[in-house]
Amino acid sequence: MHQLTLAEIARALAAKQFSAEELTRSLLTRIQQVDPQLNSFITVTEEQAIAQAKAADARRASGESGTLLGAPIGHKDLFCTQGIRTSCGSKILDNFQAPYDATVVERLSAAGAVSLGKLNMDEFAMGSANESSYYGAVKNPWDMSRVPGGSSGGSAAAVAARLLPAATGSDTGGSIRQPAALTNLTGLKPTYGRVSRWGMIAYASSLDQGGPIARTAEDCALMLGAMAGFDPKDSTSVDQPLDDYLAALEKPLSGLRIGLPKEYFGSGLDAKIADAVMAAVEELKKLGATVKDISLPNMQHAIPSYYVIAPAEASSNLSRFDGVRFGYRCENPVDLTDLYKRSRAEGFGDEVRRRIMVGTYALSAGYYDAYYLKAQKIRRLIKNDFVSAFEEVDVILGPTTPNLAWKLGEKNNDPVSAYLEDIYTITANLAGIPGISMPAGFIDGLPVGVQLLAPYFQESRLLNVAHKYQQVIEWHKQAPSGF
Ligand SMILES: NC(=O)C[C@H](N)C(=O)O
Prior knowledge:
The chain is an alpha/beta fold.
């Protein structure tokens, strides 16, 4: 059962090959057996999952038939879940139980999805390796001595290891696409504003966006259909009609114009990854696509501007964790200042503290214009690059990451080298456009991802291209050995 995709599960449940309860119980047993080595879950919600599965079976018995009815999923542990710990991978929220469900959680459960638990992540989504979690590093099922990517590393590892067919993630600078690439999965970052951020703990509010991680584009379409849509509770949510993501999957690719930005193939890219990416381009050409060389001239400024904007927004967002209102409080504070200082110093990990300090500095009087404002101006230039590129092409294609999954601990003493791993993904967040990563082969047994970017609100186009590609290649069907 654990090898089935969401779409296959939907068919099997409809054909009564097994019940949602049977499926849920079998996956819960598998999680119990397999996850201790991987560490992909922070909290397994066994009782709630069985109750939800029983409810899904009852709904089906009374005539309902939604595609996600009874489908097992997991949530990145930054989506608030009522009465269940939502830790954000941090000690400071280790004791936090949200009083409400995030809109994404609510929508998926209304569709009948069964949540098996909360998935590990980099602390406050800050990281590309899932090593900054208070709950320990997550392992990559393709090589247990390597990282699964981050910050949605628990979501990626759990889906790659067939503990779950799909999971939610969030992407501020690549956190859905990069772990998907490093674990042979398909991960979609929707347009900024497409998926509600209500109840998704904020890291960098002008960049954060929730989205799905699954094995196939078809499954991402199923998930997105339930997750996306206008939410009056999120002021950045966009009131625009949803596409029929499933119907769009089958559109032929003849005439599709693909842009290959020269900046995505420059120095810093592993040559073998470049070859795998070009092999994917050849497959897409066979399906009728045409290819054009393009340029995104301001891409070189993306990392520096992101690493000003994201920490600046984080320093503001994370000021609410003060030891007073909720979360961790230090023992025996001598006065209020001591309470703030020690609760935050003891509650946050190194990477989060580093970013709060960088962000606070960037926003401080006298430096705002020099850093934050300048970074915002660069951001506009990056956006304009995409707008002009999309006048000539329908999608932009390149590698998702410059390197393969690295060894656990390898970049711990060099945060900048980890920041550089986001080079190809960050621009989509700065511009707000959607992006997808899809499996495109292996190098020395490690997965390679190809990234596709599209104009605003064209998630259906991305899912369509990835789906058509997945019908002619087999990469996404490969499972890590032993799983
Ligand atoms: N959250 C993300 O999208 C990951 C990115 N590597 C960051 O640390 O900001």
